[in-house]
Amino acid sequence: MLYANHSCEPNVAIDLSSADSANWHVRALKDIAAGSPITWFYPSTEWEMVQPFKCECGAKGCLGFIQGAKHLRRGVVERGWINPWIEELINEREKM
């Protein structure tokens, strides 16, 4: 995943939902043409980014600035796959 980048309209999901890292996997969200970059939605695994950044993914629904799921509405984070701990944190936030 060292060479995968963020996109607001990713083509893969990073599934880290298992406690056993041997069961972690990358799953395609759509067909990926040969030679296309692998992209994933950082807030699906990151609650608060240590290094937020200006997004320049060019997607129609680009968020513009990526800080992590903490700074997004549930519907935005749920664009694709969302890891369980991010969903738990959103649920906790919504109880407040």
UniProtKB/TrEMBL annotation:
<dbReference type="GO" id="GO:0008168">
    <property type="term" value="F:methyltransferase activity"/>
</dbReference>
<feature type="domain" description="Post-SET">
    <location>
        <begin position="51"/>
        <end position="67"/>
    </location>
</feature>
<keyword id="KW-0949">S-adenosyl-L-methionine</keyword>
<protein>
    <recommendedName>
        <fullName>Post-SET domain-containing protein</fullName>
    </recommendedName>
</protein>
<dbReference type="Pfam" id="PF00856">
    <property type="entry name" value="SET"/>
</dbReference>
<dbReference type="InterPro" id="IPR001214">
    <property type="entry name" value="SET_dom"/>
</dbReference>
<dbReference type="InterPro" id="IPR003616">
    <property type="entry name" value="Post-SET_dom"/>
</dbReference>
<keyword id="KW-0808">Transferase</keyword>
<dbReference type="InterPro" id="IPR053201">
    <property type="entry name" value="Flavunoidine_N-MTase"/>
</dbReference>
<keyword id="KW-0489">Methyltransferase</keyword>
<dbReference type="InterPro" id="IPR046341">
    <property type="entry name" value="SET_dom_sf"/>
</dbReference>
<dbReference type="GO" id="GO:0032259">
    <property type="term" value="P:methylation"/>
</dbReference>
